[in-house]
Each structure stands twice: as structure tokens, then as C-alpha cells.
Amino acid sequence: MKRLSLVCVAVAMLGGCSMFHRQTPAPAPAAPVTDAAPAVETIPFRTGVSSATVEKMAKQQGCTGGQGAGLITEPGPVEVYRMRCDSGKVFMARCELRQCKQM
Q: Which domain holds residue 75?
């Protein structure tokens, strides 16, 4: 009985047994809220060697206005152009070795 009381006094003096006093981990900080990324990737306007040809093709289809036909791929033997029309539609063409066809 004396041992039990000595153990209780020792535990009380040392601040208790770690078995009975568990430390709870601190909650993780919340992630910062950022604005959502745009749903559509914007491409800077670039002209290409076939921009004028694609603009003429678009005009024949009734597509006029905007900045004109912009190159959306890297320059090379096969290029893709896009032109925004005043009506809101988009005219696209694929040009291979300067031979362009509507997409």
C-alpha cells in the first residue's frame, strides 16, 4: 500500500503519466483560397505567313472583323489559324506548306 501511495505522489509531482495526458496534434493550417483559373486558355495574337490567305477564306464564308487570322500553333510546315468573327463565331483553318483548308 505504501508503494502505491509513493507511486501516486511521484506521478502527481512529475505532472502525470504520459499515458493519461496525450497531446493532440495542432490542426493543419487551411489552404489559402485563390481565384479559380480561367476555363479557357488565352493565346497571344500572332500573325503567320498564311494569315492573309486565311482572312480571305474567312471573308468568303461571311466572317469579318476582329484582329484577323492569328497563328495558334508554332510556325512550321503545318500551321493552324483562328479568326474571331463579328458574329461571335470562330473561323479556323489548317495550312500545310501554305495550302490552307477550312477546319
A: 51-102
Average pLDDT over the chain, rounded to whole? 80
- Residues 25 and 90: their CA atoms lie apart, in Å, by 55
- Residue 73 near residue 96, CB atoms below 8 Å: no
- How high is the pLDDT of residue 38? 62
Q: Alpha-carbon distance 100 to 82, whole Å?
A: 12
Domain membership of residue 86 (yes or no) is: yes
Cell of 25: 496534434
Other Cβ atoms less than 10 A from the Cβ of 43: the count is: 11
Cell numbers for 73, please give them. 500553333
15 is a domain residue: no
Q: Whole-model pTM?
A: 0.60
- pLDDT for 27 beyond 80: no
* pLDDT band at residue 85 under the 50/70/90 scheme: very high
Domain assignment present for 57: yes
